[in-house]
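Re-run requested by the PI after the first attempt was lost when the workstation crashed. Everything re-entered from the original request form. Ligand of interest: manganese (II) ion.
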Amino acid sequence: MEIQYRQSTVKGPAEWFTGDVHFDVVFRGEDPMRTRVNTVRFAPGARTAWHSHANGQALHVTDGVGLVRSRGGEVVVIRPGDVVWTPPGEEHWHGAAPDRFMAHTAIWEGDETTWGAHVTDDEYGYPEGWTA
Ligand code: MN
């Protein structure tokens, strides 16, 4: 048995995120259990760049209001308790709503995340016609 003491919060690097994003590594498994769990906190307007996960990813929203979008799809509003499952290789982004903080727990397997372009203001924002 091993106790893993809490680590310092990390600022999300500018090459992977737009805006102010911080994350805490909750768990980083090694072979054979390569599960990874991060708590990620997004300031209003902040979001990931486009990316995909080789083995997929589950996002459990824990606070605030968030937005998520897959390539070719519409923006979807997500709230605490919602779980977003992104299948292996599906390009997507996730982040806070423009006017709200958002926190989620990210759960994925292995290191293979492929990062792409930043999400433009045209690609980001509440769905058309969406009202709080
Ligand atoms: Mn993701």
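Saved to the shared folder this time. The CA atoms of residues 52 and 91 lie 5 Å apart.
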